[in-house]
Amino acid sequence: MRDGDEYAAAASAYDLFAAAGREARLAAIDELVPRLRPEAGPVLDVGAGSGVHAARILDLLPGARVLALEPSRAMRSLALSRIAARPDWHPRVTVRPEDFFSASLPARIGGALLLGVIGHFDAGERAAVLAELAVRLPAGGAALLDLPRPERPRRIEPSAFTVATIGELTYRGIAEAWPVDAEVMRWRTTYLCLDGERVLTEDTAECDYRHPAPAVVAAEAGEVGLRLAPLADGTHWLAGRA
Q: Please, are residues 236 and 230 in contact by the beta-carbon 8 Å criterion?
């Protein structure tokens, strides 16, 4: 998994730039909650970003603990700022500055979130992640992941994915992408802060992101005893044994 440095470009207004897909992801988390098993262990949040998904779990499950992994310093600062505003969460959430393979994971987890991260793993790493989840999820437990669109790499022409106005300033994100191979796309994202037509800040990041087809991930999950089941808007269950 990459170290997350590319996220620094978006950090100044990350929650604005990520707003387009937030409601769908939060709705998927709401569906996940009944299948979490907080008594078995902490809910693992892989690539916790600004902490918005961990916050949803902490709000909806007052007895749950969250183990959040976030290697990006910029993203981690946003997550910790969110958590700092809620002292009642402090005993229940740990934000580790490590990626999935660097962190010491608990033997059992109550469930897992892998939102916006699966494309950072190559096929071998995905298999290892799925195997680690399979042995840690309790009976009847589940994880939630999203599979990036498009399902197959193709050229994406530049387009605005976020436009938000806060006071007198507008924040706009523009993304484009090219296929690299049968699974990888190279994404270029530009983050703008505008005063009318005047550009106040402009930050650009590029990264390679994998777009495995759902059938491929389903087969990989099946190899370790997990079942992939589609939800809405590209999100999927990873269900463990009953």
A: yes
- pTM of the predicted model, to two decimals? 0.93
Degrees (nearest 5) of the Cα angle 220, 148, 71?
85
Ordered structural domains, the chain, with CATH = 5-149+213-239 (3.40.50.150), 156-210 (2.20.25)
What whole-number distance in Å separates Cα of residue 113 and Cα of residue 116? 9
Residue 113's DSSP bridge partners are: 45, 144
- State the number of CA atoms in the 13 A half-sphere of 158 facing the CB: 8
Beta strands in 34-167 (DSSP E): 43-46, 66-69, 93-96, 111-114, 142-146, 156-166
Given a contact cutoff of 8 angstroms between Cβ atoms, the answer to whether 57 and 33 are in contact is yes
Rounded CA-CA distance 173/102 in Å is 31
Calpha distance 69→133 (Å, rounded) = 14
What is the C-alpha separation between 126 and 213, in angstroms, rounded?
13
pLDDT tens-place string over residues 18-32: 888 889 899 999 999
pLDDT at 1 over 60: no
Q: Determine the Cα–Cα distance for residues 58 and 42; give it in Å rounded to an integer.
A: 11
Per-residue pLDDT at 163 exceeds 90:
no
Note the pLDDT tens digit of each residue in 177-217.
Answer: 999 999 999 999 999 999 999 999 999 999 999 999 999 99
Which residue type is seen at 195?
A: D
**What is the SS3 assignment for 160?**
strand
Residues 179 and 192 sit within 8 Å (Cβ to Cβ): no
Residue from 137, 55, 144 nearest 93 by CA:
55
